[in-house]
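Support case: user asked for a sample of complex input and structure output to validate their parser. Sending the pair below.
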Amino acid sequence: MTDTKPYILDSSKIAKITSELLEKRGVTKLAIAELVHFLQKEYFPGLKTEDCLVHVDAVLSKREVQNAVLTGIQLDILAEERKLLPGLQEMIEHDESLYGCDEILALSIVNVYGSIGFTNFGYVDKLKPGILVHLNDKKDKDIHTFLDDIVGAIAASAASRMAHRRQAEIEGVTTPPLD
Ligand code: MG
């Protein structure tokens, strides 16, 4: 470490980088909102994809989520650059089904939003709807071993937030502030 300045966390920088990095890796907020719509449409008659966007934004504003996104994408990029340790490199490169740390990292996102998030995460992981098909197709040189789980987890968390918010609205509860 050559930087002599004391380290101070810059939260707005982390939020900005997270948002930019997702776009750069081909994941738009709208694509995540489409997954949320897929998960919640039967519980919210007339639900539009745009209605889901606010929940995607809210999930992405959480520090735990940003940290997981950055860490996961960084590992995918290092794998593409073949900079990982031997053994780990091959497992991430080939999305080894017995590896599992990609799912565990994504659970740190779902963890923030409770059991509805957990069940929806498992559901999209199995079904792989929408953008998850592309992230899993392995047709190009891009490696998305971590990103596919992260995107599924953000969508599952946004779906959970939507469900809990609806109940709060039904009950007219506006305090304490919900995140
Ligand atoms: Mg994966």
